[in-house]
Hints:
The chain is of the alpha+beta class.
Amino acid sequence: MEMIFFDNVDKLGRIILTTVVVYVLIVMFTKISGKRSTSQLNNFDWIVTVMIGSLSASTILLKDIPIIEGMAAILSLYLLQFLVTKYASVSPQFSSFILSEPRIVFYQGQFLPDAMRDERLTRQEIECAMRSEGIHNFDEVEAVVFESDAKLTIIPKPSPSYSNNQEADDTVSETIAPLM
């Protein structure tokens, strides 16, 4: 019970020094790895981020893990993430294997219950996303897409002046067409 608040100065010093070193190295690794490691996360990026956090905490708090070993594990994760995302950018098959596909969950005034159920989305979540975009009427929305990064994208209906000699209702957005 005597170690609840303080154990010893050496242990505290090690934790403080390790925290500073791990922090500086992770900031450097993140800067080198680019925007992807801190952008809107898809499932793959989220898993890597959680793993890096866990390895960082273990390196900081567990005296049996030297800084070099912890940083080697973290650097390996960043390298694997770089290689996987690089390959995914040139291979559509690999990309679709590791990333979730965007999915339409609302289209032309209709909620799509099967898509919503498969994605485990509620009507309230979709309505919240619409309100966040300043949309208060379902008739203003062409589609709502549940993106790979779990973000809801609202696509407003095109204005009548958008299309040449076509009714606005007949025009399908270029970004929606591949999802249909």
